[in-house]
Design a protein that fits this description.
InterPro entries: Aldolase_TIM, TIM_sf, TrioseP_Isoase_bac/euk, Triosephosphate_isomerase, Triosephosphate_isomerase_AS. One of its GO terms (biological process) is gluconeogenesis. Pathway: Carbohydrate degradation; glycolysis; D-glyceraldehyde 3-phosphate from glycerone phosphate: step 1/1; Carbohydrate biosynthesis; gluconeogenesis. By secondary structure, the protein is of the alpha/beta class. Helices cover 39% and strands 14% of the residues. It has a single domain, classed as TIM Barrel. The strands form two sheets. The chain has a four-stranded parallel β-sheet with strand order 3-2-1-8, covered by helices on one side. Helix 1 packs parallel to helix 9, helix 6 crosses helix 7 and helix 8 packs parallel to helix 9. The protein is globular and about 45 Å long. The chain starts with a strand and ends with a helix.
Length: 238
C-alpha cells in the first residue's frame, strides 16, 4: 500500500531555496521511480507555480477563510489561486498553542475551505500532560479536536502529531503510535499520518506501524537530501 509523505517547512526556506528544493526532489523522484504523492507546505512567500514532472503537490500552511478582504497579515483564496494551491494544513498544534486558534475558529475555517473544495490535512494531537494522564484522557482530548469537523469529507487527510514530540527529538514508540492510530481510526476512517520528530532514522519503523498511512515531516524535511532519503525509504517499504 502506498504511503503519503508531506513536508511542513514552517517558517523556513525562501522563494529561491524552495525552487531549488522542488527541482531536486522532482529530479530524484524520477530517478527513484517514486510514484506516490508528495505534499510540500512552504511558507506563503515561497508559493509558486512549480513546473514538475512528478506527483509533487504544493499546499499552504495557513489561510484565512475569505476570498479577499481586510485581514492584515493573512492570505485568502485569491492569493492561493494565483499559484493553483488547493491543499491546506488546518489545526496544527503551533497554530493552536502558539497563535491561539480556538477549536471554534478552526472548525469554522475547516467548514469554509471544504466548501471551496480544498484538500485538507487536519492535525490533532495531545500535550504531554494529557498523554501522561492515560489513553482515556488522550481519547477525550482528540474527540474535542474533532468537534465541528466533518470527518466524512472525501478530501480529508488526518495527521496525528503528539505535541510533546514536535520538534523535541522525542518520537512516540511504534506501540504507542499503533495504539493511538487504532483509537483514531475507530472514530474517523480516513488516511492517517504520523508527525512528531520523524526523520530518516525512524521513518521505516513508523511507516511499518499498522494503521499508519504516511508521515507529516517537519525539521527533517527542510533539507532536500534528507527528504530524498526518506522518499527512498518509503519507496522500499511499498
Amino acid at each position: 500500500m502506498s504511503k503519503i509523505l508531506a513536508a511542513n517547512f514552517k517558517t523556513n526556506h525562501t522563494r529561491a531555496s524552495t525552487q531549488e528544493y522542488v527541482e531536486k526532489l522532482d529530479t530524484s523522484m524520477g530517478e527513484l521511480g517514486y510514484l506516490d504523492d508528495l505534499y510540500l507546505f512552504p511558507p506563503a512567500t515561497a508559493l509558486n507555480n512549480f513546473n514538475v514532472k512528478n506527483s509533487i503537490h504544493i499546499g499552504a500552511q495557513n489561510a484565512y477563510p475569505t476570498i479577499k478582504g481586510s485581514f492584515t497579515g493573512e492570505i485568502g483564496v485569491e492569493q492561493l489561486e494565483e499559484f493553483n494551491v488547493k491543499t491546506l494544513l488546518i489545526g496544527h498544534s503551533e497554530r493552536r498553542h502558539i497563535l491561539g486558534e480556538t477549536q471554534e475558529f478552526i472548525a469554522k475555517k475547516y467548514i469554509w475551505f471544504i466548501e471551496k473544495g480544498f484538500k485538507i490535512f487536519y492535525c490533532i494531537g495531545e500535550p504531554l500532560e494529557v498523554r501522561e494522564a492515560g489513553d482515556k484522557a488522550v481519547r477525550q482530548y482528540l474527540v474535542e479536536q474533532l468537534e465541528g469537523i466533518d470527518t466524512s469529507y472525501e478530501n480529508l487527510i488526518l495527521a496525528y502529531e503528539p505535541v510533546w514530540a514536535i520538534g523535541t527529538g522525542k518520537t512516540a514508540t511504534a506501540e504507542l503510535i499503533e495504539r493511538t492510530h487504532s483509537m483514531i481510526k475507530e472514530m474517523v476512517d480516513k488516511p492517517l499520518l504520523y508527525g512528531g520528530s520523524v526523520k530518516p532514522q525512524n521513518l521505516a519503523e513508523i511507516l511499518a506501524v499498522p494503521g499508519c498511512d504516511g508521515a507529516l515531516i517537519g525539521t527533517a524535511s527542510w533539507d532536500a537530501e534528507s527528504m530524498i532519503s526518506m522518499l527512498e525509504i518509503a519507496k522500499n517499504i511499498d
